[in-house]
Amino acid sequence: MAFDPHEDYPLGSKRPDRVKTPGGIPLADLTLHGEGVDASELRATPETLALQSEVARAAGRSQLADNLRRAAELAPLPDETILEIYTALRPRRSSAAELEAWGDRLDALGAPFTAAFVRNAAGVYATRGLLAT
How far apart are CA 69 and CA 79, in angstroms? Predict the structure, then answer.
């Protein structure tokens, strides 16, 4: 589905039919006190994050677009995995080999853009002396 900035921006107000919760509840039917609505329904879906990435890129905000693209890849992963990745990326917490292993794992989880980010971080950490010893 291609992004059309004239038709889709801002997505939630001009095309609410394209915004749904992870469980498929349309934006128009979402209420905080509705049946079947719990915290998991209030998370952004990978599809919504990908569309937001396209909006940001169309507006010339490439860094935000890249962040949203990675968020779209990570959204389906369990919170524990996200915390493990966050911890691994903290300075002096991981070796180059450990970050490469995270890159491989992220590739296997269907998150190649995030895997490339982790591998790039490993290179930057090596240059700056921030890898675990």
Answer: 18
